[in-house]
Structure formats: structure tokens, C-alpha cells
Amino acid sequence: MRRLAQRFHVLAVDLGGLMIKVGQFLSSRLDVLPPEITKELEGLQDEVSPVAFSAIQTAAEKELGVPLEQAFAYVDPTPLAAASLGQAHRAAPSAQDAELAGFAAAVVKIQRPGIGEIVDVDLAALRRVSRWLSRIRLVSNRVDAPALVEEFAATSMEEIDYLHEAANAERFAANFAEDPRVSVPDVMWERTTRRVLTLQDVTAIKINDVERLKAAGIDPAEVATQFANVMFDQIFVHGFFHADPHPGNIFVTPTPSEGNPLAEGGQAPHWHLTFIDFGMMGEIPETLRDGLRRVFIAAASRDGKGLVDAIQEVGVLLPSADTAELERAMTQLFARFGGMGFAELKEVDPREFRDFAKEFGDLVRSLPFQLPENFLLMLRTVSLISGVCSTLDSRFNLWDAIEPYAEQLIRDQRRPAVQDAAQQAVATVATALRLPGRLSEAVDGIEAGRIAVRTPDLDRRITALERVGRRIISAVLFTGLLVTGTLLRSDDSLVGSALIAASLIPLLHAVFPSRRGGN
Fold first, then answer.
1. Which of 501, 178, 313 is nearest to 305 (CA)?
2. How far lies 82's CA from each of 186, 321, 345, 403, 451, in Å?
3. Secondary structure of 378-408 in the HEC alphabet?
């Protein structure tokens, strides 16, 4: 498998275009591919040679509709960065554009000539291969290949639409408009199209350049903490996050007093994080949030089967999945780690975590387990957060950074959890209340002769069944009222206490049934 991945790595670099993106996409699919493949593809970057400036100039002029020297006062022929789909050049806007935009230094990102046609051809080939693979039972039982390709196609089409990236940048900026910790380059809309994107040049200290940070009087450990907080705000608060926060896409921008590297009084300078490249963004839609809430409720109650059922509702498992082993693993997970808080989890021997993670990972890979792309992007993003922060501060602990958000999530989910429990109790009670009617219908049917067999022994059995049914109703009512009252008591002590008290009536009936009629 490793040799296969290595050959694909070489092929992707040779073909360029979309194939590099395919490799990068596959490297994140830990849910459907073995680690031997994903690990090899992790290092697949946009390892491409830049396009000759004359070709880039022609493509830009065709897209903008004017000569490049008219669109910009100056464009540096040497690319700032070359990627598989496009490349970036530093530029100076014209005096008029600079006045309108409010900045005089820009970076213009231009798509490679013909990349649209290359993407169309590559996607058509991938779709054909996926349809062929879907006819192989061994593959179709494990992976929904056509769905995987369509997911990748949607992401790819967004990446080559620079208007979409510009809109992402403005949406991201709006989320942090009142937050001094974050800045985003402004978009020069006058020089932006689907294939050309012009942004404010915000180049500063790369976030992982520890030596330059220290030279500027900035504590790398503080940068790690702030970066983690900002990223988790994106995920947990805004639900819209930068899905490719590698060091090349985040700068630390110092804002010292009077241009001095150190602020007044010898204190560390003010600084903020500057994000660039908004082509790959993740979003947690409301449907996924609801699904994750159900997963959370099942996890909070340490219900292994309920968790597996919730995972299936989210659409993570394909219909062919045999969930018995997954339920067993979840139950084992809850039994070992379920009652631990964050502080206790930090004290667990890392080797135990690794052993369990290996066993659990092998199990997951044996199932037709296909995570939604946004969920995978979130996992990948958290992994990148951890990597960047560990580079800045070797003592950085991801638990410490995520704990406040987890606690808030628990507080936010309490009321929905209560509502879900109450709804479940009501549904159960409603089912139980329909039981006497169904029993009566059965009795009526027997009495009307629609059921042919009628004997004294059958009458006694029906009477006993009715009595058992009444006791079942009482037991269900008791459970529903008690559980609902207990959950509501923390929010409304009066209503909660009243429901708990009322549960005693059906309890007495269930324990001490009526003896009328000699029963």
C-alpha cells in the first residue's frame, strides 16, 4: 500500500493540476483509507513549477479585459507562490484603485492557463472510475465512491472560483470585525474575477518563525494560546472556520509603538494574527449540528448503542455496516474513560490512549465509515492547530485550550438534552396509552367473532393480558414523569418537583395492582 501511495505521489506531481488536489484530499480520508496510504500522501504539497510570466500575463489580461500595465502600476514577474491551480504575484495597484481600496500594496492571484478545462477532464475521469468501482461489491460495501468524488468535485469547483474565495474572506472578516486579535486582507473587487483575485498585501512574520517572533519581542507561547483560542472560536462559536491553517497561511503582525520593535516601557508589542487564503473553508451546517447534538447526548449518557444509532442518523455509516463490534468498542470506551474529566484524562498514560486509538482505528477502518467532509475538515483543522501550537510551545496542551469550549458546549446542550428526553418520555407514554385501545380492539374482535377461536381459557388469558397492560402503562408513566421531572428540576424546581411527586401515583398502581373482579 505504501508503494502504491508513493507511485501515486509521483504521478500526481507529474500530472499537476487537479491530481495534486486529489492526493491532498485522499490524505485526509482517514475514515476510508489505511494509514499506510494517508501518511504517504500527507507530504503531497503543491510541488509544481511556476508558469512563465508571459502566459500568466496573457491569462490575466484576458480575464480582466485590459492590459496588465493598465490594471496595475506594477506586477512582479517573479511569483510569490506557485500552486497547482494558480500562482500569486506581488503588485502595486494604480493610484485610482489604491485610493478606492484603501491600500497601496497588493497580491494578485491568477489561475494557471487552461486549468478550468483540466479540472473538467480530471473530474470526468474520476466520475467514470467511481462508477466502475461502485460495481465491485468489495469496494461498494466499504466506500460510497461516487459520493466521495462528488464531495471532492464540489470542493474543487469552489477552489477555482476566486469570487467564492473573496466572499469567504469577507464573511470571515465580518465574523471578527470587532476582534482585535484577528485581521484579514481587504479584497480589491475592481480587480477580482472568477480567475483573478486581488488582495491587500499583508505579509508579516510567519506564525512558526520562532526566531523572528522572539526578535520582535513576541512570546511564541502567547501566540500559541491566542492562535488556538481564535481557531476554536471559529469552530465552536461561528461555525465557519479556516480549514487550511498551516503556517504559510497565518502571519503574526506586530503593531509596535512608533515603529519600535518593543512597545513603550519595554513591554512586548501589540500584535495580531493575520489569515490569508480562504479557498478552503469549513462549515458546520445546522443539520450536522443537530446530528452532533444527538451524538453528544448519547455520549454524555454513556450509551454505546445510542451513540452508534446517532452516528447512523448523521449518515456517517453506510447501510451495509455491521455495528455490533462498534457498539462493543463504544461501550468499552465509556467504561474506561467515560467518567473522567479533562484533568483526569490528562493524567492517563499516553500509551494507553495510543493502544486504544490503534484498536479503535482498525475497527473504524474495517467498517463502511464515511465522515461528512466538513466533519473531516474540522478534525484535520484541529490536528493542524495542535501541530502549529506545539512548534511554538513544546508544553502546549490541546486539552487546556479546548476545555472552556467543551464546558460551554455542555452548558449549551443541557436544555436541548432536556427537551429530547422529555420528548422521548412523551412519545413512550403516548405509545403506552394506545396499548389499552389496541387490547380493547382485540377483545372486541374476539367478541364479534372476527377471531374464530373462543374458549374460557382464552378469556382468562385476555383478562390477565389487560391487567398486565395496565401495569405496564403505570410503570411507563412513572418512569417518564420521574425522568422528565428530574431533568427539568434544575431549570424549574417547582415543575420538576411536581412531576416527581406525581410519578408516585402510577408507581403505586404498578406495584400494588387492583384486585377487583377477583384478579
1. 313
2. 21, 43, 43, 39, 81
3. HHHHHHHHHHHHHHHCCCCCHHHHHHHHHHH
Partners of 308 in the beta sheet? Answer: none
Q: Which residues contact 374 (CB under 8 A, 6 or more apart)?
A: 282, 283, 284, 285, 288
Residue 264 predicted with pLDDT over 50: no
Which grid cell sits at 411? 452548558
Q: SS3 for 231-300, per residue?
A: HHHHHHHHCEEECCCCHHHEEEEEECHHHCCCCHHHCCCEEEEEECCCCCEEECCHHHHHHHHHHHHHHH
Residue tagged 461489491 (cell numbers): 137
**Above 70 in pLDDT, residue 461?**
no
- Give the integer Cα–Cα distance in Å for 254 and 217: 9
Say whether 122 sits in a helix, a strand or coil.
helix
Is residue 321 within 8 Å of residue 359, measured between CB atoms?
Answer: no
**CB atoms closer than 10 angstroms to residue 242:** 25
Q: Residue 24: name the closest of 274, 141, 124, 33 by CA.
A: 33
pLDDT, average across residues 7-11: 81
Name the amino acid, one letter, at 162: Y
**126 in Cβ contact with 17 (< 8 Å):** no
User: Which amino acid makes up residue 439?
Assistant: L
Amino acid at 498: A
Given a cut of 50, whether residue 454 has pLDDT beyond it is: no
Is pTM, for the whole model, over 0.70? no
d(CA 202, CA 200): 6
pLDDT per residue as tens digits for the range 376-411: 778 778 878 888 998 899 888 877 787 776 666 556
Beta bridge pairs of residue 183: 274
**371 Cβ partners below 8 Å, 6+ apart?**
31, 316, 379
Q: Would residue 266 be called left, alpha or beta, if left means φ above 0 and alpha means ψ between -120 and 50 degrees?
A: left
Which distant-in-sequence residues (6+ apart) come within 8 Å of 224 by Cβ? 388, 389, 390, 392, 393, 396
On the CB side of 415, how many CA atoms lie within 13 Å of its CA? 4
Q: How far apart are CA 239 and CA 292, in angstroms?
A: 13
Q: Please tell me the predicted confidence (pLDDT) of residue 510.
A: 53
CB burial class (10 A; 0-12, 13-18, 19+) of residue 486? middle
Report the candidate in 83, 109, 110, 111 with the shortest Cα–Cα distance to residue 24. Answer: 83
How far, in Å, CA of 519 to CA of 465, rounded?
A: 11
Rounded Cα distance, 156 and 17, in Å: 11
